[in-house]
Design a protein that fits this description.
Elements: E1 34-37, E2 42-44, E3 47-50, E4 55-57, E5 63-65, E6 67-71, E7 77-81, H1 83-89, E8 97-99, E9 104-106, E10 115-119, E11 133-137, H2 141-153, E12 164-165, E13 168-171, E14 181-192, E15 196-201, E16 207-214, E17 220-227, E18 234-236, E19 240-242, E20 247-254, E21 264-271, E22 278-287
Parallel strand pairs: 10-11
Antiparallel strand pairs: 1-6, 2-3, 4-5, 6-7, 8-9, 12-13, 13-20, 14-22, 15-21, 16-20, 16-22, 17-18, 17-19, 17-21
Length: 288
């Protein structure tokens, strides 16, 4: 079975400024200006995401400002945004964490290996393992293939409706007006021995219709997710399998208030058997 068969790593964005205002107690007197709280708001693509004076709730339940404005001795101003708010605004895959040892805010901390657990074929890892635990499975290749095939065949052939990933929700295909659609992909044929992955859009307030025909020699797995804008991974919808020669339709709706960073979907497809070629015909359409 191919590992890491699908990777939805979106393009990183350029940020004009991303800073954290941390003034240690020993730094008093270094800065000669004054700080004001919530004087300015935050817009993204001309849409107000935090109005002037807006606050957010800290982990301890206290209300804290979203922005801080520092006015220096010469009257110049510099604006700061809370790092957790930045992570939210720019759709990061994880919020920054505090590194107390280095006295730093850590963006995308690296998870270190804390231990190794050996498993037998078919044996499941214990629940609530410490973060960074590595599991290793030992056994014959034939046994592992049988286990994987059993897991694969247990996948449904139709998705569960109503699941949401951010602002996008999977809905019944019957809700889509097929007479009012525009293509982003039209009968695009893909062949690959490592699986196929593609992205498509579901604009705010509109529907997206994904159609996949399995032209492979064996069944394939279909995974749809809303990828994070900054970082890897995403929020997943139902994993399903598509039998040989059959066509699968999936429909999605994006809420009217969705931001520009939350209107992308990604689909990953792979065959059940190692060495088999993934052959699919894909169409992606959105309502006009």
């Amino acid at each position: 079975m191919k590992k890491n068969w699908i990777s939805f790593l979106s393009g990183m964005m350029t940020m004009a400024m991303l800073v954290t205002l941390i003034v240690p107690a020993g730094a008093a007197g270094i800065f000669n200006g004054t700080a004001g709280f919530g004087k300015v708001g935050v817009e993204v693509y001309d849409q107000v995401k935090a109005a002037p004076g807006a606050s957010m709730t800290a982990a301890n339940g206290e209300k804290v400002p979203v922005t801080i404005t520092y006015t220096d001795a010469k009257g110049g101003t510099t604006n700061y945004i809370a790092v957790k708010k930045v992570a939210e605004l720019f759709d990061m895959s994880q919020s920054p964490k505090w590194d107390g040892e280095k006295n730093c805010v850590n963006f995308f901390p690296v998870v270190k290996t804390t231990g190794v657990i050996e498993l037998k074929p078919g044996e499941k890892a214990p629940a609530n393992l410490p973060e960074g635990t590595v599991t290793v499975t030992h056994g014959k290749t034939s046994e592992l293939e049988a286990i994987r095939e059993k897991e694969f065949m247990s996948l449904p052939t139709a998705p569960k409706l109503g699941i949401s990933a951010g602002s996008i929700r999977e809905v019944n295909v019957s809700q889509v007006d097929k007479t009012n659609l525009g293509y982003s992909l039209k009968n695009a044929r893909f062949e690959s021995d490592t699986g196929v992955s593609e992205t498509f859009f579901c604009p705010a307030g509109k529907y997206a219709l994904l159609t996949i025909k399995n032209e492979s020699s064996c069944e394939i797995e279909c995974q749809v997710m809303r990828p994070y804008t900054v970082g890897s991974g995403g929020q997943e919808f139902t994993r399903v399998r598509i039998p040989v020669g059959q066509t699968l339709e999936r429909a999605f709706y994006c809420s009217p208030g969705a931001g520009e960073f939350q209107q992308t979907l990604a689909v990953g497809l792979r065959t059940m058997k190692d060495g088999a070629i993934t052959k699919v015909l894909i169409s992606a359409e959105t309502t006009r």
